[in-house]
Every structure is written in C-alpha cells, then in structure tokens.
Amino acid sequence: MSRRKCLLLNFFVDTLNRMNKSKRGRPPKEAGELHDESLLVRMRSSEKEGFRAAAELSGESLSDWVRLRLRQIAARELKRASRPVPFA
After folding, report:
1. Which residue has the higher pLDDT, 1 or 39?
2. Is the pLDDT of residue 6 over 70?
3. C-alpha to C-alpha distances, 2 to 5, 7, 8, nearest whole angstrom
4. Of 27, 39, 49, 51, whose CB is crowded by the most CB atoms within 10 A?
5. Can you tell me the distance from the alpha carbon of 75 to that of 2, in angstroms, rounded to the nearest whole number?
6. What is the distance in angstroms between the CA of the first residue and the CA of the last residue of the chain?
7. Looking at residue 49, what is its pLDDT?
8. In sequence order, which residues have a C-beta less than 8 Å from that of residue 55 and are 6 or more positions away?
9. At 79, is the secondary structure helix, strand, or coil?
10. What is the pLDDT of residues 29-86, one digit of tens each?
11. Taking 70 as the threshold, does the pLDDT of residue 88 lie above it?
12. 37 vs 17: which has the higher pLDDT
C-alpha cells in the first residue's frame, strides 16, 4: 500500500474512532433527580384524557403534571393535619 493511501486510511480510521466515542442521548440525571418508584393508578379513559390535555396546556409531561399536582394536594392535607411533609 502506498504511503499516501496508508495516511488516508489512518486518518479515516481515527475520524471514525472519534465519532464513536462521543456520547449520544441526554446526560444522566443527578442522584436527587431520579425517580425510582412508580404508582399504578386505575382511571377512566376520559379522566386520563383530561389529565393529558391539562398537562399539554401547562407544557409538562403527563407524568410531571400528575406528580406535581399530587405533591401539592398531599402537602396541603399533611400540613392541615400537622403532619410532616416527607418531600418538602
């Protein structure tokens, strides 16, 4: 193989290696941002559609919208009962 072809091949291989090393996707979340529990809630499809529409209006995902509303209501009820709010 000629020296010129060898240099071009090395350049091509190095370029591909650098491209493969770049990480793709979103960066990992911090430990405090991870949601490690799930909650299954049964509801009517009309309720889910209403929640989805409200979440869309607020610019939030359905999951974030539901979590925020549940936190607000739970905090209010716990404070009213003079109980600690574990997620405050």
Report:
1. 39
2. no
3. 5, 9, 10
4. 51
5. 74
6. 68
7. 98
8. 61, 62, 64, 65, 66
9. helix
10. 777 777 888 999 999 999 999 999 999 999 999 999 999 999 999 999 999 999 999 9
11. yes
12. 37
Phi-psi region of 86 (alpha: psi -120 to 50; beta: other; left: phi over 0): alpha
DSSP string, 28-66: PPPGGG-----------HHHHHHHHHHHHHHT--HHHHH
Task: Give the CA dihedral 5, 8, 9, 12, nearest 10 degrees.
Answer: -160
Token digits of residue 15: 């370029």
Specify whether the backbone of 59 is left (phi greater than 0), alpha (psi in -120 to 50) or beta.
left
Beta carbons of 69 and 63 less than 8 angstroms apart? no
* Structure tokens that stand for 42 in this block: 């049964």
